[in-house]
Design brief:
Order of helices and strands: HHHHHEHEHEHEEHEEEEEEHHEHHHHH
Number of domains: 2
Main location: membrane
Number of helices: 16
Structural class: alpha/beta
Family: Belongs to the glycosyltransferase 2 family. GalNAc-T subfamily.
Membrane topology: Single-pass type II membrane protein
Strand order of the largest sheet: 3-2-1-4-11
CATH class of the largest domain: Alpha Beta
Shape: globular
CATH superfamily of the largest domain: Spore Coat Polysaccharide Biosynthesis Protein SpsA, Chain A
GO biological process, one term: spermatid development
Radius of gyration: 27 Å
Pfam family, one: Glycos_transf_2
Length: 437
């Protein structure tokens, strides 16, 4: 009897082993066949260079089921030694304003440190928030930095709140931003609308073009060299849901232009001097008192400009951007003054974090000319008698032309905006202190 049982168990295990072996052989054959079929599909030559981006050629079924895998400890960049006199490094720095060698090594996706305060990580937001149209404009942006921006937004934004990403190409000239970019955008399955400007409009008008095509409740403007952090979108949408006339900015973390290391920013607010130069300013300690502490929204006199969220209807109601401004520069100050002086509010939301590459830009003569013109339009519409403080420091601009501002003056009247004196007294009294500095 015992021998019979042993013989039976032996035969059963042998039969199971044979079936398992046949199953594995069949699976291997199918995998090889599928791989051979895929390998016969034509792949553009430039795509072969992207061996760090293997995720791009996943099966479409896998792509459609993408989800965010958040690691407890983000991967750190491996130490990468290179020669700072290397012509390739210098060329990238000159062309794009940051280290493109490391940018290529990093690729399209990475985990960055969660820089939010622990209080922020414990917050919960309504499941019924407004939807967001994220608008990203670019001109000759470095390919990997642009793709990292897009991947971070798609991966770290709740799908039910992310209506769309509107990508506006402001007449880029580089080849990798043409057909190659469109090929890579196919992975996002229609979530991204790509608009190609037929002539160079500049950042200000390019953003207006993007906003005109948006269908989300809230417009979220990002630069094309950002990486959003975890839980970045919900705090912005929640603040606007409570008050549609509240314009909000995330706290902007630093991505180092030489190493691409992601560094946390302290809680700061936006400010400017009488030269109209934007700067970051310390936050008063009393503003972070109370149970919410460092997670409390921070009242900010001005925004940095590149990264903010605004209710779409309020953006139109308040007059969008000044279309008479050229390229970029000064539009952030002009919009900030208009928000405060015309009945809105501007806050920085510390629980929303977005990393931004601090580019090493050399401004061309064309940019400097545009910035000067933009400042003059701001000065003559919004500073009232205080415009003389600006001309004391920039006397050479006093008789420079700045175009027709009648439409913006009429807008100020129609909105019933307050005086710049009110702004100094109520929003930014610290500016008075620096009059003689």
């Amino acid at each position: 009897m015992r021998k019979g049982i042993i013989r039976y168990l032996f035969c059963a295990s042998l039969t199971s082993g044979i079936w398992a072996a046949l199953f594995l052989i069949n699976m291997h054959h199918n995998d090889v066949s599928n791989w051979q079929k895929r390998s016969q599909e034509p792949i553009p030559a430039w795509f072969l260079e992207q061996n760090l981006q293997q995720q791009i050629i996943h099966e479409s079924e896998q792509i459609s089921k993408r989800h965010v895998t958040v690691k407890h400890e983000p991967e750190k960049l491996r130490p990468f030694n290179f020669n700072y006199t290397d012509p390739e490094f210098l060329d990238g720095l000159s062309k794009y304003g940051f280290n493109t060698i490391i940018s290529r090594r990093v690729g399209f996706e990475r985990d960055v440190p969660d820089t939010r305060h622990k209080i922020c990580r414990q917050k919960h937001y309504s499941v019924r928030l407004p939807t967001a149209s994220v608008i990203i404009c670019f001109h000759n942006e470095e390919f990997h930095a642009l793709l990292r921006t897009l991947y971070s937004v798609v991966n770290l934004s709740p799908r039910n709140f992310l209506e769309e990403i509107i990508l506006v190409d402001d007449m880029s000239e580089f080849d990798d931003l043409k057909e190659k970019l469109e090929y890579h955008l196919e992975i996002f399955r229609g979530k991204i609308k790509l608009i190609r400007n037929k002539e160079r409009e500049g950042l200000i008008r390019a953003r207006l073009i993007g906003a005109s095509r948006a269908s989300g409740d809230v417009l979220v403007f990002l630069d094309s060299h950002c990486e959003v952090n975890r839980g970045w979108l919900e705090p912005l949408l929640s603040a606007i849901a409570k008050d549609p006339k509240m314009v909000v900015c995330p706290l902007i973390d630093i991505i180092d232009e030489a190493t691409l290391e992601y560094k946390p920013s302290p809680v700061v607010r936006g400010a400017f001097d009488w030269n109209l130069q934007f700067k970051w300013d310390n936050v008063f300690s009393y503003e972070m008192d109370g149970p919410d502490g460092p997670s409390k929204p921070i009242r900010s006199p001005v925004m940095a400009g590149g990264i903010f969220a605004i209710d779409r209807h309020y953006f139109n109601e308040i007059g969008q951007y000044d279309k008479g401004m050229d390229l970029w520069g000064g539009e952030n100050l002009e919009l900030s003054l208009r928000i405060w002086m015309c009945g809105g509010q501007l806050f920085i939301i510390p629980c929303s974090r977005v990393g931004h590459i601090s580019k090493n830009d050399n401004k061309s003569h064309e940019i400097l000319k545009a910035v000067a013109r933009n400042y003059l339009r701001l000065v003559h519409v919004w500073l009232d008698e205080y415009k003389e403080q600006f001309f004391l420091r920039r006397p050479g601009l006093k008789f420079t032309t700045y175009g027709n501002i009648s439409e913006r003056i009429e807008l100020r009247k129609r909105l019933g905006c307050k005086s710049f004196q009110w702004y100094l007294d109520t929003v930014f009294p610290e500016l008075e202190v620096s009059v003689d500095s």
